[in-house]
Amino acid sequence: MKTLSLAKLLERLTADDFGEIARMPALENLRVNWNAVGWEAGPVLPNVTHLRLNSFTGTEDLSKVPELFPNLRTATIHLAPDVDTVPERVLGLLPVPVVVERSDSVL
Fold first, then answer.
1. CA 89, CA 98: separation in Å to the nearest integer?
2. Which of 5, 26, 53, 61 is the 20 to 30 A CA-CA neighbour of 80?
3. Beta strands in the chain (DSSP E)
4. Dihedrals φ, ψ of 35, to 5°?
5. d(CA 36, CA 53)
């Protein structure tokens, strides 16, 4: 599996869930609601080259992104409906080009 979408998952992942994800050697694209699933405790995924953060609120701690995804090439941040922008401090944590999408920009 090259793409895994957990974007609509609204519950924290368990250690078993993280273990299963870590055993996906072909995984390149990950879509996740960072705060909902608790990814900051997740496994290191060196094969993931694209990360999409859905329902971004601005409260996410993305400081571990470079460590968890060492081969990341691009990131997309899809803003929650009531959020207008991504703070510069957050953008500075991501070591790759970031595309920001608003809720009204996705059909």
1. 13
2. 26
3. 3-6, 29-32, 50-56, 74-79, 98-101
4. -65, -40
5. 11
Which two structure tokens, joined as six digits, stand for 9?
A: 């998952």
In this predicted model, what pLDDT tens digit does every residue of 66-95 receive, in sequence order?
999 999 999 999 999 999 999 998 889 898
Tokens linked to 97:
């080009």
Distance CA 80, CA 102 (A): 7
23-73 pLDDT, tens digit each? 999 999 999 998 888 887 788 999 999 999 999 998 888 999 999 999 999
pTM over 0.85, yes/no: yes
- The dihedrals phi and psi of 85, each to the nearest 5 degrees, come to -155, 165
Residues 6+ apart with CB under 8 A from 43: 18, 19, 21, 22, 68
Helix (H) or strand (E) holding 15: helix 15-22
